[in-house]
Amino acid sequence: MKLNLRFFPFNFIGDLLRFLRRSFRLLRDNVLSSIRLQLIFTFIVCSVAAVIVFSLTSMSLSRQQEYPQIDYSRGMRDIEEHAKYMVNYLKSPVVNEQEALSFLNREMQRSEYKILVLTTDGKVLYKTADAPETQVDIYNLFANTVSDRITYDSSTDVVNTRREFVSFYPVDLKSQKAYLVVSGMPTPEITYTYSVTSGVGPVSLLTSVAAFVLLFYWMTKRKMKHVESLADGLLEISKGNLEYRIAASGKDELGQLGENINYMAAELNRTIEEERRAERTKNELITNVSHDLRTPLTLIIGYLRLLKDKNYEDEKQADSYVNIAFSKSEKLKRLIDDLFEYTKLSNHGNRLVTERVSLNELLEQLLEEHVGHAEENQLRLLRDLPAERLLVQIDTDKIIRVFDNLLSNAIKYSEKPGLITVTMTKEPGWVKVCVGNRGRPIPKEELERLFERFYRVDASRTSESGGSGLGLAIAKSIVESHGGEIWGESEADEVRFCVRLRLDGDEGVPPSGGYGRIGV
Fold it and tell me: What is the topology classification, in CATH, of domain 353-519?
């Protein structure tokens, strides 16, 4: 027979414990993530503590005061017990009349109480020696005895009145009916009574209120310190210390506020750093532009002045001056055009006119145009393009300018004689093109700055030898405006610049004939 372990008691207890544990964790997480729930929980705990303190204070302040007094109730009980003892003996069926009389004589001789045996009409048959009575009024005796009995039976407290106590019982002396009367003064004893004064009052109330306030202050102390740290942090940040960070504390709204303040400080710091960097770049831009514009402009003015003053030997020398001035003018125009182009791209003032083209074919045509330039500089172009057509959505003229700049830089700064490599690879959703050449290695920190405007690896280079310094900055702006990436790599003596563009549409259609690895 297969047991259903699911209903085994220990499984049930385990499930119950796991449920309680999960419930406790859920409740704890909810409380820790909400200031409102934390305040409710704190108020409940402080209220319960105040009630407990109120109860304990009331109990401790309640006083028991002891009062001594004389109590006759025990003496009355002794007289009553003695009377019952005699009655029980006389009523015993094994006791004859002679034995009863003998018992009465003994008790009357040794008893400390007054004992009377009366007939039904009140005549005294037997009595103790100190008893003077010979006739007793049965009616009055019965009335007094009943009154004492009522007082005795109903008394649950102290009897402090001293008077004779009478116990009255009917007995049968075999030969006649009679009454047994036992009386005497009750023996007194000292007893103590206690009076309780309640402690419920202003002291208990004030103590419970103080307990509530102190416990509430203690339980909220940590949270208030966090609030103070937030206030101090905001004050510190407002003074301009944007490096200051508020210590993380808790998952509730205050913790989130601290994280948001830290994020705000970081963003402000980043924004200010960017503004400072932009200011430095602007100053560098003004300095570089002034220098790069002044150099060719000074040469142009100098040669034009020579021509104006006719300070030349012959027409051949004059033509040479004109050619130099014209060359410098063209260089000046290119520099101004580059600066204008970069400004438009940086300010998003130049709208892209995109079309869907095959990047393979575009790059192949561009490489053909640079073959002659490369051969003049004792360089060979080595291309590695895939056979499948890789289609991209681009502004053709601007992308041509990017690759034209990369190829021109590779030819200009390559070791001669040498080799220029152009590779194209397909990645998931992207196409990557790299242009590499052999040359002096570029440190990593300088590679990251190559795309800054007017930055040159060799600070001694001027526009005469190193270009305007805007080519790579323009290329970066163009590529990023297409949603792509451009970066530089340097390994050993090889320097590569790579461009990644997003593929578009049916990029797997093979061209007629295709392109393979061709060396020129």
Answer: Heat Shock Protein 90 (3.30.565)
Output the pLDDT for position 270: 87
Give the type of residue at 75: G
Q: pLDDT at position 150, please?
A: 58
Q: Decide if 110 contacts 175 (C-beta within 8 A).
A: no
Helix (H) or strand (E) holding 38: helix 35-61
Residue of 204, 195, 202, 194 lying closest to 59 (CA atoms): 204
Pick one of 3.40.50.2300, 1.25.40.10, 1.10.287.130, 1.10.10.10 as the CATH number of 225-298.
Answer: 1.10.287.130
Contact 178/120 with Cβ under 8 angstroms? yes
Across 156-264, where does the E strand assignment appear? Answer: 165-172, 177-184, 189-197
Residues sharing a CB contact under 8 Å with residue 189, sequence separation 6 or more, in sequence order: 70, 71, 74, 75
Alpha carbon distance 52, 42 (integer Å): 15
Fold of 70-194: Beta-Lactamase (3.30.450)
Return phi, psi of residue 385, to 5°.
-115, 140
Strand, helix or coil for residue 345: helix
463: amino acid identity, one letter:
S
Q: Are 446 and 457 within 8 A, CB to CB?
A: yes
Let me know how many helices (H) and strands (E) the chain has, helices first. 12, 14
Q: What is the DSSP letter of 291?
A: H
Cis peptide leading into residue 417 (ω within 30°)? yes
Give the closest residue to 45 by CA, choosing from 271, 219, 265.
219
Q: What is the pLDDT of residue 195?
A: 57
pLDDT tens digits for range 17-70: 777 788 777 777 766 677 788 888 888 988 999 999 888 887 776 655 566 788
Q: According to the model, what pLDDT value does residue 423 have?
A: 93
The three-class DSSP label of residue 223 is helix
- CA-wise closest residue to 329 among 290, 300, 349, 306: 300
pLDDT along the chain (520 residues), means of 10: 50 74 75 76 89 83 67 82 84 78 82 84 82 82 70 56 80 79 83 60 83 88 82 83 78 78 86 82 71 78 84 83 84 75 63 87 90 87 89 90 88 88 92 90 76 54 50 84 89 88 63 33
The partner residues of 433 in beta bridges, in order of sequence, read 424, 499
> Which runs of E-coded beta strand occur in 7-161?
63-71, 114-118, 124-127
Helix (H) or strand (E) segment spanning residue 394: strand 391-394
| Domain extents in the chain | 1-31, 33-62+200-224, 70-194, 225-298, 353-519
